[in-house]
């Protein structure tokens, strides 16, 4: 589904929910999506300048780092040869060796910092996982292997 269709669906849902008096939850983080077209070197240079400008503002930089400001590849303009697929990152190979945690408390940040493609985490007998770490493991499809001894 393209970004434009998603934006239209979100707008229709907002209007319908507002018409029915359903309040929007305040606790949900606001995510800002920005479409980026990279069909030429000039487009790439403009995008880099945009990132540098955003990075100079500490709030905008924090939003980017925390995933509240995301960039999506926009479909190229008509008449260009490039396609969105040309910019997609190749899928990482799954890591066959599980990552090990021998002791302590494992939090969500440690799970987020695992290499892409990790398929299993081996945890020691005394290791505890925070609920957010467990959620992140589940979201990424990483299996937990508990040590028995």
What kind of oligomer do you see?
single chain
Taken as a percent bin, the fraction of beta residues is: 15-25%
Mind summarizing the main beta sheet? Answer: 3 strands, parallel
Runs in which pLDDT lies below 50 for 5 or more consecutive residues are 80-90
How far is it from the N-terminal to the C-terminal residue, by CA?
48 Å
What descriptors fit this protein?
single chain, 149 residues, alpha/beta, 3-stranded parallel beta sheet, two-stranded parallel sheet, 5 helices, extended
Give the structure's gist in a few sentences.
By secondary structure, the protein is of the alpha/beta class. The protein has helices spanning 3-19, 41-55, 58-65, 108-112, 131-140, and strands at 32-36, 69-73, 99-101, 105-106, 120-123, 128-129, 143-146.
Report on this model:
With 149 residues, this protein is α/β, with parallel strands linked by helices. Helix content is 37%, strand content 17%. The radius of gyration is 20 Å and the shape is extended.
What secondary-structure arrangement, pairings included, does this model have?
Blueprint: H1 3-19, E1 32-36, H2 41-55, H3 58-65, E2 69-73, E3 99-101, E4 105-106, H4 108-112, E5 120-123, E6 128-129, H5 131-140, E7 143-146
Parallel strand pairs: 1-2, 3-5, 4-6, 5-7
């Amino acid at each position: 589904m393209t970004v434009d269709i998603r934006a239209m669906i979100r707008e229709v849902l907002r209007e319908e929910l507002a018409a029915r008096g359903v309040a929007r939850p305040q606790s949900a983080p606001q995510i800002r999506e920005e479409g980026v077209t990279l069909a030429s070197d000039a487009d790439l240079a403009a995008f880099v300048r945009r990132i540098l400008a955003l990075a100079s503002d500490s709030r905008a930089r924090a939003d980017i780092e925390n995933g509240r400001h995301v960039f999506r590849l926009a479909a190229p303009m008509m008449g260009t040869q490039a396609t969105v697929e040309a910019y997609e990152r190749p899928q990482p190979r799954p890591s066959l060796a599980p990552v090990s945690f021998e002791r302590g408390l494992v939090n969500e940040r440690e799970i987020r910092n695992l290499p892409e493609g990790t398929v299993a985490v081996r945890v020691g007998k005394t290791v505890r996982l925070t609920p957010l770490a467990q959620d992140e493991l589940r979201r990424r499809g990483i299996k937990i292997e508990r040590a028995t001894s």
